[in-house]
Specification:
By secondary structure, the chain is α/β, with parallel strands linked by helices. It contains 39 helices and 16 strands. Strands 1-6-3-4-2-5 form a 6-stranded mixed beta sheet. The protein starts with a strand and ends in an 11-residue tail after the last helix.
Length: about 850
């Protein structure tokens, strides 16, 4: 075998083809892996544009085996390992080519197409420079050939849409020169080690050896081995007294985190967690002959380990004020604040600042994140901002003032810190319930509740509170009658509901989820009035609960929010005059898969405005991506529709049909292909509260009571035939070795679940969620795609095909990444066929478990 370091553009240049063999699994990269790669690319682009000559980024290795030379002299290679990276880069270049085409840059597009993507003078499959495995081939070639179904469902289509969206957003804010820099970085700055096998090598044996179950050395393992190699006389004593206690305190993952944070706090704001060994080794090499200096470095690591534990477990912090803000940040989640917090603890322990000053500093960091969530701004880039903060603390003056001044600088995009007016407007109009992560929404309401200063503080750990709607998500007619009293000209109660239901003014915390339900307000008043939470008592004091009351409460909470989370320095203008919701609208449209459509109302509900406003904006905005996929509520092309970009022409219905959206004889698009606001939120990476994850990830405790509640709701809302069909399917599931768990939301849902993974890595798998009131069964592809064995896309497609073979079920292929549903009536008419699908599901799980290697212990690390 021969290994050579190269770049992607050099690797694929010339008449050759890289073919993924059948024994390889399908393309599996999802948003997290794509985002990590894109963050690295953006960093390299920034270096290039600012004139910094970085060392590039090591992307990994690819293992290739020569296949044969085909007619015309083209060399074919089998991709033994590395197909995920190669496919990702090919899709990124495909999106780049299409971006250039959209900008009219014909030569740039042709250069990418001819030098990277295709073999111009070859025919058929030989024309593709990368040929994925058969399961991915159709989706991949649709993108390369610019077919109507390009960017459809599945991981390949999602990756293509990801890069289209990222390039569109970047070009909008940074211009076409930035796009050219991206192209250069992708082709020439990502280092790849190409390992080529010799002719006659057993490539499948190579594949097996590369993908065995062994665990390689981590970055911190490599650093440890290097350090103690440089301590020949003092190593054993230092290891026992310093390194081993630190390693046992932190554990492997947190030790790796510490080594990375040490680089960031030390001034390397561009340190990557994937390359910390390289950067630390480079920093320590001048000390390699000085054992005392290296011992001092390990002692410094040890001190920072104790400080990191105060960040990870804030109860270790002695100062009450500092502990309080560390606890809030810990509950907020993520590691964004870690570099700043670690350096502040350095300063406190070294008596260079006070604990109170450190708390004030972290409070500004907390405000920056909370205010951005209120405004619906992306978290992309926030980590980079916070990695730059430690060096600000070393300047003269107060750390809190330095951080506030730095975050207040005029910025755009990922660096905007919303001011008071923006926060107030967002609280009034934006759907907070569909913004950020569920724990973050909870923490906002918790902090607001704590601001009332109740004499009897709530024990949040024991109260089992959840975020709840006062005006219900699925209201009974009495609620609509109330909203109708406030409707203006041309305004329906449903539109008022859509605009208000998810805003902060309508949200509260409660442990009475099931009892609150969607009852009329006078019944909710009794429960809210008896609550220990002051915010609930204040809601209960109202005689009614409609638009007036929700907006009044939003104003009150906005006053508290701007006081609790102070904003940037006065007089700083950070963003342009465009409303953030329109930028969010463009992001959403870029994420809509080919073969689906959505409505003006669904978009309005997600970004916090009206359907009319969305319609006017879509009609007026030039160059809006895929605006033809936005239809009226009943699935019709809007009257007066006109194309506002140069990519399409003619009848939009014809374009949608070519992408896979069926229309009926009345010109209405299939409802099965419609994306709800919840679907759209998932596609752009928002973490929505959902009954499925809450139910199926719950323990079986209290299952009898929940099961009774589920059956009661089922019998009260469905026909006897449907009830018997559903219960028969659940009994059959138990006979096959499964069990049921139940959702915690108002509508007690049921999830037929099977356990897998074994004691070391247990996981729950469930094919459907059953909703007894709404009368639907959701097929949970959205969750299965992250759970083996159904993280393999062909297996999910097989599940969809089996369901679709049953009369009455029509799951759109374009919703393979979402949670399409079918009516529970199918259980009555086709119970045996449903049970057959459930039996197949359990069989596939069992088959995958039988193939899973037995892990009989942790491998030794040398």
């Amino acid at each position: 075998m021969h290994a050579q370091e190269t770049t992607f553009s050099k690797l694929v240049q010339g008449e050759q083809q890289f073919q993924v063999p059948l024994y390889q699994r399908t393309y599996s990269w999802q948003r997290e892996e794509l985002r990590q790669l894109w963050d690295d690319v953006q960093e390299l682009v920034e270096d290039r544009q600012e004139g910094r000559s970085g060392s590039g980024h090591f992307l990994g290795s690819v293992v290739l085996a020569p296949e044969r030379v085909v007619a015309g002299g083209m060399q074919r290679w089998l991709v033994v390992d590395g197909q995920q990276r190669m496919t990702t880069l090919m899709l990124a270049f495909t999106a780049l080519r299409d971006h250039h085409r959209g900008q009219g840059s014909v030569k740039k597009a042709a250069r990418i197409n001819d030098l990277i993507l295709v073999n111009t003078y070859q025919d058929g499959h030989d024309s593709y420079r990368l040929l994925p495995t058969q399961a991915d081939r159709e989706a991949y070639t649709a993108c390369v050939d610019s077919l109507p179904k390009a960017g459809g469902a599945g991981n390949v289509g999602a990756a293509y849409r990801f890069f289209v969206a990222a390039l569109t957003e970047g070009a909008e804010s940074a211009g076409e020169a930035w796009v050219d820099a991206v192209e250069s970085v992708l082709g020439d700055c990502l280092s790849i080690v190409a390992i080529t096998a010799a002719e006659g090598d057993n490539v499948y044996r190579i594949f097996e050896s590369i993908n065995n179950t062994g665990v390689g050395l981590s970055q911190s393992d490599l650093l440890r081995n290097y350090l103690f190699m440089c301590l020949p006389t003092r190593g054993e004593d230092v290891y026992r007294k310093r390194w081993l206690p630190m390693q046992e305190l932190l554990g492997p993952a947190h030790l790796e985190l510490l080594v990375w944070l040490d680089l960031v706090v030390g001034g390397n704001s561009r340190a990557r967690q994937s390359e910390i060994y390289r950067d630390q080794k480079k920093r320590l090499e001048p000390l390699s002959g000085d054992e005392a200096a290296l011992e001092a470095e390990i002692a410094r690591f040890s001190l920072r380990a104790d400080r990191l534990m105060r960040i990870l477990e804030p109860e270790r912090e002695n100062d009450a004020t500092l502990r309080s803000v560390l606890e809030r940040l810990s509950r907020w989640g993520g590691q964004t604040h870690y570099p700043l917090a670690l350096h502040l603890l350095d300063l406190v322990d070294e008596d260079r600042t006070t604990a109170a000053e450190a708390a004030d500093t972290l409070a500004f960091a907390e405000s920056y994140m909370v205010r951005r969530l209120f405004a619906g701004l992306s978290t992309t880039g926030s980590n980079r901002v916070f990695m730059e903060l430690p060096k600000e603390l070393d300047k003269d003056g107060s750390p809190a003032e330095a951080v506030r001044r730095f975050l207040s600088r005029p910025r755009t995009g990922a660096r905007v810190w919303p001011g008071d007016d923006e926060v107030r407007e967002a609280i009034r109009t934006r759907p907070l319930y569909k913004t950020g992560r569920s724990n973050q929404r909870f923490q906002i309401l918790r902090r607001l509740e704590e601001s009332y200063g109740s004499s009897e503080p709530v024990d949040y750990d024991k109260a089992q509170l959840t975020v709840e709607h006062v005006l219900p998500q699925s209201p009974a007619q009495q609620w609509f009658d109330l909203l109708a009293e406030e409707a203006g000209d041309g305004e329906s109660p449903q539109e008022i509901h859509n605009l208000l239901v998810h805003t902060l003014g309508n949200l509260t915390l409660s442990g009475e989820n099931a009892r609150l339900s969607n009852h009329p307000f006078h019944r909710k008043q009794e429960l809210l009035d008896s609550s220990a939470l002051r915010m609930n008592q204040r809601i209960a004091a109202h005689e009614r609960w409609g638009r007036t009351e929700i907006l009044a409460r939003a104003e009150e909470l906005a006053d508290r929010a701007v006081a609790l989370w102070p904003g940037p320095l006065d007089g700083v203008v950070q963003s342009d005059d465009e409303w953030a919701g329109w930028r969010e609208l463009r992001e959403i449209l870029l994420a809509v898969p080919a073969g689906t459509w959505t409505s003006y109302g669904e978009l309005a509900a997600l970004i916090g405005t009206s359907a009319i406003a969305v319609g006017n904006h879509v009609a007026a905005r030039t160059g809006l991506h895929c605006a033809y996929r936005v239809l009226t509520a009943d699935g019709r092309i809007a009257g007066g529709f006109r194309w506002t970009d140069d990519r399409h022409s003619g009848d939009p219905k014809v374009v949608l049909e070519a992408e896979g959206v069926p229309f009926d004889e009345n010109g209405r698009a299939s409802k099965a292909h419609r994306l709800s606001s919840a679907d759209l939120a998932v596609l752009v990476g928002k973490d929505l509260p959902d009954q499925t994850s809450a139910g199926a990830d719950a323990s079986r405790a209290g299952g009898d009571e929940a099961g009774t509640r589920f059956e009661t709701l089922l019998r009260a809302n469905q026909t006897p035939e449907v009830v018997e069909g559903v219960l028969a399917a659940l009994r059959f599931w138990e006979e096959q070795g499964g069990h049921q768990v139940y959702g915690k939301a108002t509508e007690t849902s049921c999830f037929p679940t099977v356990d897998a993974g074994g004691p070391r890595s247990p996981r729950a798998l469930w094919p459907i969620g059953i909703y007894p009131v709404s009368g639907t069964a959701e097929v949970v592809f959205q969750y299965l795609k992250r759970r083996p064995p159904f993280d393999d896309e062909p297996l999910r497609r097989a599940l969809m095909e089996r369901f679709n073979a049953i009369d009455g079920i029509d799951l759109a292929e374009a919703k393979l990444d979402l949670r399409p549903s079918f009516p529970l009536e199918v259980f009555a008419a086709h119970g045996e066929e449903i049970r057959s699908v459930l039996e197949w599901f359990i069989h596939e799980v069992a088959l995958a478990e039988s193939r899973r290697p037995i892990d009989d212990g942790d491998p030794a690390v040398f």
